[in-house]
Amino acid sequence: MKISQRARELTPSPTLAMDSRAKALAAEGVDIISFAVGEPDFPTPPNVVEAACTAIHAGQTKYTPASGIPQLKQAIVAATERDLGLQYDPAQVCVCNGGKHALMNIWQSLVDPGDEVIVFAPYWVSYPPQIELCGGRVVVIATGAESDFQPDLEGVRAAVTDRTIAILINSPSNPAGAIFTRATLRGLVDLAEERNLLIISDEIYKHILFDGREHLSPAQLGADAQARTILADGVAKTYAMTGWRIGWLIAPPEIAKRAGDIQSQETSNPCTPAQYAALEALSGPQESVEEMRAEFERRRDYLVPALNEIPGVTCNTPGGAFYVYPDITAHLGRKLDGEVIGGSLELCEYLLDTAHISTVPGSAFGTEGYLRISFATSMEKLQEGVRRLTEALK
């Protein structure tokens, strides 16, 4: 049976693969603590659920325009002005089947074979495969804990070639929870303006910020910055709506239209009742957003010091999102449970098999020597997970 080269070369999402393995063990009765999947552990707010039910009972179960209902586009524009102080036209919005789909629509609208996109490591696991599926080349710029995951701007400049079309930014970031400083964003925007590049800004975690921080988007750094920045966002993380699959992109009108055209041939419209749920999430009461954010901060404030007390583990304090990204380099090369731990993947497998903790290896995010631990789980599970981790790494 013939399988395409692109399908043969594509690897499954490492985060979902690790979670699947953990769930298989749990199904066998093993007590697994999962720190692997990046979704809030809170329920979707009741008003959002009710809005979906109301839409269904009102008969809103048919096709909509491929790029989303006008009411939701208007709500996205209004929410963006509320959150960022930026004005857009609804024609610049394409509503998609989740933030991941929004990003894929962006790449399919922009990338020709051989085009280059600058991506900062550690990166979300789906960034490189999506770009490569469109024939693009990923140019990785490594960052590390020593710089709080800020890129070296001169290194970025040196990486730009005549084939570079865009710089991808994710702040706050998955997996490190890092937030690009104003100086970093200013430097990237200046470079984009100088070399006529687009900036793709994945802002899915922009409402999950700690220590009183306020979100700063590259699009806020001037009219030209706004004009060349494409925003990717969604309701998944902010409103605990990962399974509802509603995201969007905001782009120059021509790009937004092309993305909608592509989507019309891929999936048609996003789920109709879910669009009405997202409409309520964006335009209804926002108290749940702060409640979830505050609880994430409380968990972070426990987890970071607890991890730093484990010998051989060092952990930066994330400024946002709901992940920590501890450096576990000191444990690589050790012999644990009779096996030499050669890399972060082997360490994750060891922790799952012996301590029954599910984590994700740094190698999946383009940076060896780290683990990603999600604190989108209860405080009790965090405490028990830290206890197991401490014992396993003795």
Task: List the keywords.
single chain; 394 residues; alpha/beta; 2 domains; seven-stranded mixed β-sheet; 14 strands; 14% strand
Q: Low-confidence runs (pLDDT<50, min 5 residues)?
A: none
* Number of DSSP-assigned strands: 14
Q: Strand pairing plus helix content: what structural class?
A: alpha/beta
CATH topology of the largest domain: Aspartate Aminotransferase, domain 2
Estimate the strand proportion: 5-15%
Care to describe what's here?
By secondary structure, the protein is α/β, with parallel strands linked by helices. It folds into 2 domains: 5-43 and 288-392, Aspartate Aminotransferase, domain 1 (Alpha-Beta Complex); 47-283, Aspartate Aminotransferase, domain 2 (3-Layer(aba) Sandwich), CATH 3.40.640.10. The protein contains 14 helices and 14 strands. The strands form 4 sheets. A 7-stranded mixed β-sheet has the order 2-8-7-6-5-3-4, with helices on both faces. Strand 5, helix 8 (182-195) and strand 6 form a beta-alpha-beta unit. Helix 5 crosses helix 10 (253-266) and helix 12 packs parallel to helix 14. The longest helix is centred in the C-terminal third of the chain and has 22 residues, at 287-308. The protein is globular, with a radius of gyration of 21 Å. The mean pLDDT is 97.
